[in-house]
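Minutes, project check-in
Item: structure for the 294-residue chain
Input as provided by the requester:
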Amino acid sequence: LIQPGTWLAAWVGLAPLLLAIRSATPAQAAVRGLVAGFVYYGVILYWIILFGALPWFLLVIYQAAYIALFAVVANRLWPERLGWLGFLGIPAAWSVTEYLRMAGVYGFAWGSLAHTQSSNLPFLQASEFAGPCGISFALVFLNLAIAYALSGRGKRRLLPLSLACLIVAVMCVYGFAVMRSSAEETTRHKIAIIQANMRNDFNPVPNYPDVAYERFSAMTRAAADGEVRLALWPETSIPRDITSPGWADMIGQIASECQVDLLAGGYDHSDSPGQPGSYNALFHFGKDGRVHGG
C-alpha cells in the first residue's frame, strides 16, 4: 500500500501520464499506460518478491494491464476531442477500470487510488456517500484538470482546474465538519495496537507460533492499563487455527486477564467442498475469554 503521508502526491501523480497519452495513438497510449502501471505496481507490490521474481512479475503485469486499458480509453476521451464530457469520461473510466480490477475471483484491491488518502481524513469523509471509486473519481478529475491547464492555451484552460479545486475544497470542508461533529457526539475509547515486528516468511524464527504468542501476550499485558477497551493483534499474528482447543484457551486467557476485547489474526480452516483450505481470519476474544466470532 502507499505509505501514509504521501496523499498529496496522488493529487498530481497522474498528470504526467495524462499528458503523455494526450496526443498519442491508441497503441502508444497502451504502452505508456503499461509502463506507468508496471512502475507503480512494481514498487508497491515489492513484497511479492518473497514468493519469487516470476509471481511478482506476473502480478505486476496483470495489474498494469488495467492502467494500459485506462490509458487507451482516456486517449479517446481527451477533452480536446469531447469537450467538457471528457472531464467526466476520463475520471469515470478510471473508476470503472479500478472497480473491475477489484471485482471477481481474481480481484485485487491493493494500490487503489483512494488508498493514497488514508492519512487525509477530511478528504476521505466523502466516501460515506461516494465510496472509494468516488474518491478516485475526484482525484483523477483534479489530475486531468492540472494536465489540461498545462497543455492548453488561453485563460479558459484554467476553468476546469478552478472547478476541480472548488470540488476538493468542498469535500475537505465537509470532511472537517463531519469529523468535528463526530468528535463532539461520540465517546472516545482507548485502543492498543500490538505490533511485534516479527519476521514470518519462508525462514521464520524457530517455534514461531510459541514465540509470537509470548511476545504478543507480553505486549498486551504491558499495554493494558485499565483504560484500554480493545487490543488488536495483526494479520496471522499466530499462524495457527487459534479457535482450536489450546490456542483459544491461551489467547482467551490474555483477554480475560487484561479485561480487553482482543482481535487476533489467525487461520480459519474450511471443510467446504467448494473452497477447502485455510484462510486468513480475524477472531474476537471477549473479556470473558471466549471466542465470540470471526
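Outcome recorded: DSSP finds ten helices and five strands in the chain.
No further action items on this chain.
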